[in-house]
Design goal:
Layout (H helix, E strand, L loop, with lengths): L4 H15 L11 E15 H5 L5 E3 L9 E4 L3 E6 L5 E13 L4 E7 L5 E18 L5 E11 L5 E8 L3 E8 L4 E3 L11 E9 L5 E19 L3 E11 L17 E10 L8 E11 L5 E3 L4 H4 L1 E3 L3 E7 L5 H6 L4 E10 L5 E5 L3 E11 L7 E8 L5 H8 L3 E10 L4 E9 L5 E4 L10 E3 L3 E2 L5 E3 L1 E9 L1 H7 L4 E9 L14 E14 L6
Amino acid sequence: MRKYLPILIIPLLALVSGCMDIPKNLIMPQWDVNLNVPIINRSYALNDIIKTQNYISIQNPNTPNSIYLIQSDNYSQTVGVSQFVQASGTEATHTNVPTNLGTQTLYVQFPGGVTINSAVFASGFLSYSFNNPSLENVTINLSIPGVKRTDGTTFSQTIQLPPQSTDSTQFDFSNYTYTLPANQPSFFNNSLQIIIGASSNLPSSIGVGLYTQDFFFSSATGYIPTKSLGIKTQSFGLNINKAKDYRNKITLGNADLSLDASYLSPSSNPFGIQVKNLSIIGKRNDGSQISLTIPDSAKTFIFSNGSKHFDFDQTNSSITSFISFLPDSVIVSAEYIMNPNNTSGTVTDKDSVSFTANFSTTSFLAISYASVTDTSSFGDISDKDRTKIRAAQSAYITVNVQNGIPLSSSITVTIADSNYNPLFTLVNNTTSADSFSIAPASVGQNGEVSGPTSTSFTIQLDSLQTDKFSHAQYAIYTVGVQSANNPTPVYIRPNDQIQIQVFGGVKFRVNQDNLK
């Protein structure tokens, strides 16, 4: 058998040599690989997106668990009671006083039906008229025991009245004080005591007319009849600025109004005061308005030398819809009635009634739209990698979002070159829109966030976009938040976050050419 082996091999080699050429160069294998390009990796707190405005603020910026709230300033209405310390009108007494018979005590009522134990006059007038029909000179001595001058002396006057003459004078009691004389009978406590003595050479008689008119007190203790100070109305501007954008787009779940009413007096025994038919109206500049519905017990009430505090929420008022209305101004109106129980007390012209209103809602609110725009760099992409992108079989961009904010969110991404010139904007393959909607965070029954919501989008790039992608250097993107249609109230907190990751993917075939 060995002698035949060479004969068999030689013909076989000749056959192979005649059918094919042996390759001179080694052929490299080919395979598909992916090139990932990081584009965006950022987190934004809700506070970064909304920012703090006038009217919309953070409950406590130093507390991580703080919440947004709509918060007004304190709006106060102060009403003075100086009308109440007025004894308006005129009272008169007329009589004849004989001469040479000592003194005679006369009483003329205080105007306005008041009974005064002590007072300081801001103004007020005592007028007298004397008539001497005799042929003798008459000397008249007049004193008012209860009225003191600034030096503490009793008010007194001496008048010389010629025969067959008259005299009249008016005194202004400004800055005089009054104290009810100890010997004055109680049934004359509503009157001013005046002592008159007249003398002449021969017995005669003079006619006397005494008039009190328009007493105004700096302070008074005694009885002053019930008096309405009238309806007082005051308007407060809310200065809501950009919050106007939230009109008709806010849903509130726990709005409240804190209302404090105070009667301020330096005295220890002030008169009572009644606040009647209190109304609070919100008004917009276009003339539309809304009335706050409050309990009857808050519309009309009585207090003295103290304060009344009211808390209104959605269980006892219409404060939710009132604040949601976002008025440009708030109008507070009420009638003020002094001494509604007809008792005695002390009042000063410094007394006042003050109302302070503060509107707020913790962050059970819907947000129309708020956004933040930012730029992210692709980092260093080598020329070799950019060449690979241009030669890619396919390219795509993926958007991954973890939304921990209980609001609907959206993102728009534009790819730009090194000069920030836009190359193309990502388009949602499903909706053909240039923005991507992101579901809100999951929320429990109490409105609190129970967990973030994950959302992912992948956008396939066409050949033109892929070529442009090879020249990309920046991503310009906008992240927005807004409430869903017919939103359910949820707590929104400034530290709620949304995390965004965007990266590009390129698939290309490795071969000898693109390895060079």
